[in-house]
Amino acid sequence: MTGTSGEDGRAIRRDTERVVNEVAQQLRTLDDGTAWFTALPPAGRAAVLQEVAGYAMQAHITTADGHGGVARSGVKPTANPSVMICMDPPRYGFAALPSDEHVKAFRVLVPVFSVADARRRQTYGKGTCRHAWHNLVPAAEGPQRQE
């Protein structure tokens, strides 16, 4: 099967939102997020890359965010995903990259989103954002997350 069903797609989007924001807020490591990502089927990985690229677009990433995220990613600055995200304006066609570059793309996109999201929350929504994904609590303080 090359695609995902409607329910599978919704589940991947919910999981993506949770995992990416947990990594962005340092409630989960990038390595843990990458392990989750690599366990997905190829179509799921492509869907996640599209979703996370959308998060980055909504965060209005800057070139500085791109460079800061790449520095945190563990991916070489010369790798395709690193170069794409640091362009001005950034390129977002990560799901169209060859599948052997999808893990690198995930490892780049999530930290870049994290940098941009933190910058925007400090600038625009300091203490006022009510989006559930911006207000996650560590597992010790709240309900246990389900895998």
From TrEMBL:
InterPro entries attached to this UniProt entry: DUF5958
Protein name: Uncharacterized protein
Species per Swiss-Prot/TrEMBL record: Streptomyces pristinaespiralis (strain ATCC 25486 / DSM 40338 / CBS 914.69 / JCM 4507 / KCC S-0507 / NBRC 13074 / NRRL 2958 / 5647)
Lineage: Bacteria, Bacillati, Actinomycetota, Actinomycetes, Kitasatosporales
